[in-house]
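Why predict the complex rather than its parts? Because the way molecules touch one another can change local conformation, and only a joint prediction can capture that. The input here totals 225 residues.
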Amino acid sequence: NAGVMQNPRHLVRRRGQEARLRCSPMKGHSHVYWYRQLPEEGLKFMVYLQKENIIDESGMPKERFSAEFPKEGPSILRIQQVVRGDSAAYFCASSLSRADTQYFGPGTRLTVL
Amino acid sequence: GQQLNQSPQSMFIQEGEDVSMNCTSSSIFNTWLWYKQDPGEGPVLLIALYKAGELTSNGRLTAQFGITRKDSFLNISASIPSDVGIYFCAGPDTGANSKLTFGKGITLSVRP
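Output of the joint prediction:
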């Protein structure tokens, strides 16, 4: 399967814990985007990375959230000290180049108790 | 920032009927995208439009890029039960990056 992979698909955390969401882009894709979807809302852009570099993080909260896309391995979206408001579906997309079609993964559904 | 407007939030149709949904913006988009999201899954690209006035089909789906570049519509003909899902319009930022702006989506229900 050459699609975008995300894991875990479902993640439950208690308030104050850390959440790590992983995204493996499609083969050959070096551009990764993270989006967040609240219930009954559209997807909201969070961060755009291109291998080892953060290109645009204008949609990501300044505190508690961070993202990386190392030279080897998946992209990671990390949320520290989670709060109930972080409960959402987090989607990763990848593309071959900056202006190319973005292909989405199945998402990680984070629930904060 | 840029915003895309989709309404109504939900649509209910009978199997076999055609349905049309549109998307509007107060600002210009140079590309219009239509995605479908099934429950528990990520969005899947249905149709991409790159030129004002362009009309593009993908099976029973037809979409058009409005000539003002501020709207687009999606038509689904002869609906079937598997058309159920959430339909989003989206467009890339007009700046240097290609981050996507999404509408809130329209949930389509198809009665057999």
